[in-house]
Design a protein that fits this description.
Layout (H helix, E strand, L loop, with lengths): L2 E3 L2 E9 L4 H14 L3 E7 L14 E9 L10 E6 L2 H7 L3 E10 L5 H6 L7 H5 L4 E5 L1 H8 L7 H5 L2 H12 L5 H10 L4 H21 L5 E3 L16 H16 L3 E5 L6 H7 L7 E5 L3 H13 L3 E3 L6 H7 L1
Helix pairs in contact: 1-7, 7-9, 8-9, 10-11, 12-13
């Protein structure tokens, strides 16, 4: 088996909004960061509220750009596209480079799945004119086989399929699974049986790649310079926005007020700011988007640095206020 060394690579995880693509992408990004790679990520959420499963508008994505040296953008087109269903393949294929690799869950490409994603033939790859290398993997059925003795129900078992895909991608880029396993233990600390199931499937995905596709090239991205010793943290746009708001209030000599209503992906700002009462931050989870906006207007009149947050369909509700 050949191991190719790359300067940089872009990986895009995509699937149904319930397929856990954000988690898989986040873990892969963090694992890459722990080995000294520079990263830049771009989460892509569907704008629909509870889009029907398997529909074109319900596709959720997560793109990460990994480099041996400094990386400044999430990248344009990806080298590796994980498409967990036909809808993901149809909407995301435009982001994949012609010489890229596509990984699919072949179990999710049945006649009904193709119909939901509005294909007109029974061969989605031919219909879309796919020229990239395609790795068709029966991810769902292998997850069921892997966890048949776990005591979990079918729905819970299929929720682990994102970890199988992640394991396969980790094999592709010669990533050690230890950091990913630790992240899963932390995330599911209150549900150890879920953590155990996800870790098992993660390893099964890695081993599937190692055992079945030994002829496929794998890759490594070696960091060019050693990272300075110190305490590091991963930071995303929402956390950076939260810190920026706190800093702005501090510089303005005002108390910070956030009136908000939870909506993915903006909810993280509410979560983060609610942790900082000691810095004079006030957060209110309102009953709807309009109330969140109106309460911020009131707080501004009362002398606070007032903020409201939202995303996607929440914007039109804010406009009413």
């Amino acid at each position: 088996m050949m191991v190719k060394e790359l300067e940089q690579v872009v990986v895009r995880f995509s699937g149904d909004s319930g397929d856990g693509m954000q988690l898989a992408g986040n873990i892969f990004s963090n694992v890459s960061a722990t080995v000294g790679n520079d990263i830049c990520t771009f989460p892509d959420y569907p704008a629909d509220i509870r889009a029907p499963q398997g529909s074109l508008t319900g596709v959720s994505g997560f793109q990460v750009h990994i480099g041996a040296s400094k990386i400044f953008t999430p990248g344009d087109r990806c080298n590796v596209l994980v498409a967990m269903n036909p809808a993901a393949l149809k909407t995301q294929i435009k982001f994949c480079k012609p010489q890229g690799l596509i990984i699919t869950d072949s179990d999710s490409f049945g006649a009904k799945d193709l119909e939901k994603a509005k294909y007109t033939t029974d061969n989605p790859f031919e219909e879309l004119g796919v020229k990239q290398e395609v790795l068709e993997v029966p991810i769902s059925s292998m997850c069921k086989e892997s966890l048949k003795d776990s005591g979990l129900d079918n729905k819970a078992i299929l929720r682990c399929k994102n970890m199988f895909a992640l394991g396969l991608v980790c094999w592709l880029f010669n990533r050690n699974l230890e950091a990913a396993e630790n992240m899963l233990r932390q995330k599911f600390a209150k549900k150890p049986e879920i953590a155990t199931a996800n870790i098992k499937v993660l390893n099964d995905g890695y081993n599937y790649g190692a055992n079945t596709h030994a002829s496929t090239s794998t890759y490594k991205i070696e960091s060019k310079s050693p990272k300075a010793k110190g305490l590091y943290t991963d930071i995303n746009g929402n956390k950076a926005t939260s810190y920026g708001l706190i800093a702005a209030a501090e510089k303005a000599g005002l108390e910070l007020y956030l009136g908000s209503y939870p909506i993915t992906p903006a909810t993280d700002i509410l979560h983060e700011l609610s942790k900082h009462k000691s810095l004079g931050v006030k957060t209110v989870q309102c009953e709807d988007e309009i109330a969140g906006c109106a309460s911020a207007v009131g707080a501004a009149f009362a002398g606070d640095l007032a903020v409201t947050t939202t995303s996607g369909p929440g914007v039109c509700l804010k406009s009413e206020a």
